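Why does this matter for the project? Reviewers at the last site visit asked to see concrete outputs rather than summary tables. In response, this paragraph embeds two records directly. Each consists of the residue sequence and, immediately after it, the corresponding structure tokens. Nothing has been edited or filtered.
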Amino acid sequence: MKLLIDTHILLRAASGALPSEAARYIENMDNTLLFSSASIWEVVIKRALGREDFIIDPASLYSGLLGAGYQELPVTGRHTLLISNLPPLHKDPFDRILLAQSAYEGIPLLTSDVVLSQYPGSLIFVKS
């Protein structure tokens, strides 16, 4: 199964602190793991703002994800147009684009964000 991995889980995986429930999906060799280019953008922005939970070097994260076999999902105009259809449950624009990408591509979003889990659609919620 293809899975789009949210930024928080990507960061946890990169730091070696992946929750066991998420690890079952990530380590399953039958799954194709994707990350959004928006996740890299989010890390760049939030690291520049000095957020303590975004200390990883974005270039290292990017190359590490590709080296680990993840596939990049670029953000397209079609993805961004779907954002207007999303209920206003979550204000974070990075999370909203991940939801739109997941919906447009028909790929479940693997997330540990409780607010994201309230959206309709193909989401897999795991506890962090």
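We now turn to the second protein, recorded in exactly the same manner.
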Amino acid sequence: MNEQQGIIMKRMKTPSWCRLFSFSLPLVLLTGCAVGPDFVRPTMEMPATWSSETAGTEARAVEQELPRWWAVFNDPLFTSLIERAQAANLDLRQAAARVRQARAASGMAFAAIGPTVDAAASHERSRTTAGVVGDLYQAGFDAGWEIDLFGGTRRGIEAAAADLAAAIEGKNGVLVSLSAEVARTYISLRVGQQRLAVARQNMAAQRKSVEITSQRYAAGLVNHLDLSNAEAQLATTTAQVPVLESGVRQTMHTLALLLGQPPGALVAELTPEAQVPVAAAAVPAGLPSDLLRRRPDIRKAEAALHAATARIGVAIADLFPRFTLSGALSFSDTHLGSLFTWAERGWSFGPSVSWRLFETGRTLANIELRKAMEEEEGIAYQQTVLTALREVEDGLVAAAKDEEHRRALLDAVAANRKAVELATRLYTAGETDFLAVVVAQRSLYAAEDALAQSTGNVATELIALYKALGGGWEAEAVPAP
């Protein structure tokens, strides 16, 4: 019998289960099931419209405005600060690093579905008891492939892809928060500067009142009480200036940190005073259902739920046996020059099965753990959606009511200015005492200060509404798990 006939006879003697295993392998790889529940996108009953009467019925495209909502304030420096923060903020860079980590982990999970090949080589020099000294050279390859018959590896890949999606949405969430934080801080800076300007203007007016009262006191037209009231009024307003100056400078430091720069880096740029920016248009709130695809935190919660669902399948797969194909090719010779000759080869190939028969209790407990974690993520998703709905409703109400408050303060400031002019004229003519001037000036200062703060509140609530709607990020391709 020649060598070829021998090989044929050996093949004929191969056990039938091995032949069946080899023939059925391609079919298993194509049709193999994946244990565990399939992810189903969560559904929640969303209101058809916003309950707030101030929501409006604008028909403008929300998707076109929300990614760069700060443009509606028409403030070039405002826009520049946000764009620079998005390019250099350290929290955002950390989020980007987490995305890269998740992407690498997803690649590692996908690599687990393929075979592994290990190479090894060795040289051994030995001496026998007979005094013979010799060399032994060995080299070879070992390969193994775990067949994902029950889908545990595929569920792991699915979970890793969902983790990647969650990391990307987490980065988008940082973008949303960062844009809003830079905007709020910038508004706070301009409000502080405006309040400081109001204080200085009132100081100038009160200093003039002190001069007038001093002159009248020297002429014996008023008593010392009027002079004391005028000086006390000026001193009180003057005391507010250092506090406001400190707040303005600290706000500049906060903006620098948000832009990833040293505290004093923006002082020269931000010192020139400017008005609080006002949005040019109302916010198109869209529909409540839009939040499910716009808000990164909702999308992240959905991805986290997807990952938790997939990991149930990973845990269930541990209940079943693992099938592996393994093979090895080796060469061994006492001379290095003839190591890789075909005659010196050795090889092995065959399937194997392993089954954790005595860890069933631990596996079942792990399955229950994963199910409970999935339930937790499902509840977290519902909580995230409800919180988003509340934030939008709060923002709609606050934006409208703050605007009403600002309009009322505009009227109050105008009325108080007239009162100050009238009280000063009457006092100069000797028709009233200085107390009327003090009261009028104090009311005017309070109204102007409140107006500055109210103008900032209007802008801040508008920013909060844009944030609640999920504005401030551009859609990025997220891999489907």
